[in-house]
Write a structure and sequence with these properties.
The protein has a single domain (3-212), classed as TIM Barrel, CATH 3.20.20. The N and C termini lie far apart (44 Å). Helix 6 links the parallel strand 5 and strand 6. It contains eleven helices and eight strands. With 239 residues, it is α/β, with parallel strands linked by helices. Helices cover 44% and strands 16% of the residues. The chain has helices at residues 19-25, 38-43, 49-57, 74-84, 106-114, 127-137, 149-154, 159-170, 187-194, 204-209, 217-235; strands at 11-15, 33-35, 65-68, 91-96, 119-124, 143-147, 176-180, 199-202. Helix 6 (127-137) runs parallel beside helix 8 (159-170). Strands 1-2-3-4-5-6-7-8 form an eight-stranded parallel β-barrel, surrounded by five helices.
Length: 239
């Protein structure tokens, strides 16, 4: 079911680095784009970063996909970003909002976007970061600001008012889209849509649950009871 059929305007990106899953999702009209990162690639067993990306791009040609730099020095980030950007017209280069020394990447982001490179500024958490990133993106190429709402929620903070403010602050850069990153439950899809986020990225386990929208709760209760019963019987439990 497409998101428009659910009454939603937000774009749904698939998050992951599993080749088979990406190729399958590339043909799904409900999936508008893809996000990856070095951690996901490592967990999927990717050994050759460039070869993996080029292989995926042979199949994903008309949907945006983000590949992240993995340097910690801003000059080397620039070199990697400029190469990654040549891999395809649908490629967004993910730039971390700071390096590991807490040095902001806004000057690099400004330079890249003014060169016409589409960037996805990632690992963004704070409103101050959003403000400085949006300022750097003004007048530049199409871009994405990935705010890790799920990790913000992990700290005990309600991400909804935070993300609502993010959308307002990011509006100063008209070609920048706000992405709700690291969702923890499918409810986040509906929350992100309601406050005007442009994109949400979801892992396969969450994507599968979208089909549950408006499921009858009596039926869902019955199915849950049946699952418990069947699993106990299959395990052969006895008292």
């Amino acid at each position: 079911m497409g998101l428009d059929a659910c009454g939603l305007r937000i774009k749904l990106f698939a998050d992951g680095a599993n080749r088979a899953q990406i190729l399958k999702q590339a043909t799904d009209p409900a999936i508008s784009g893809f996000t990856t990162n070095p951690t996901l690639m490592r967990s999927s067993g990717v050994v050759d970063y460039r070869a993996f990306a080029r292989d995926i791009l042979m199949h994903v040609r008309d949907k945006p996909i983000s590949f992240e730099v993995f340097a910690d020095d801003h000059e080397e980030m620039r070199r990697q970003a400029e190469e990654i950007s040549t891999w395809g017209s649908n490629v967004y280069v993910k730039i971390p909002v700071t390096n590991t020394r807490r040095e902001p990447s806004v000057d690099l982001v400004r330079l890249l976007t003014q060169e016409g490179i589409k960037v996805n500024v990632t690992a963004v958490f704070t409103i101050d970061q959003v403000s400085s990133v949006a300022a750097a993106l003004e007048g530049g190429a199409p871009s994405v600001i990935s705010v890790f709402a799920g990790r913000i929620a992990d700290t005990g903070r309600d991400p909804v008012p935070h993300m609502r403010q993010v959308v307002e602050v990011a509006a100063r850069a008209p070609l920048a889209e706000v992405l709700w990153a690291s969702p923890r439950e499918v409810l986040n899809l509906y929350q992100a849509d309601a406050i005007g986020c442009h994109i949400i990225t979801m892992t396969p386990d969450l994507l599968a649950k979208i089909a549950l929208q408006n499921r009858d709760l009596h039926d869902y209760s019955h199915d849950t009871v049946k699952m418990f019963y069947d699993d106990a019987a299959t395990a052969g439990y006895r008292l």
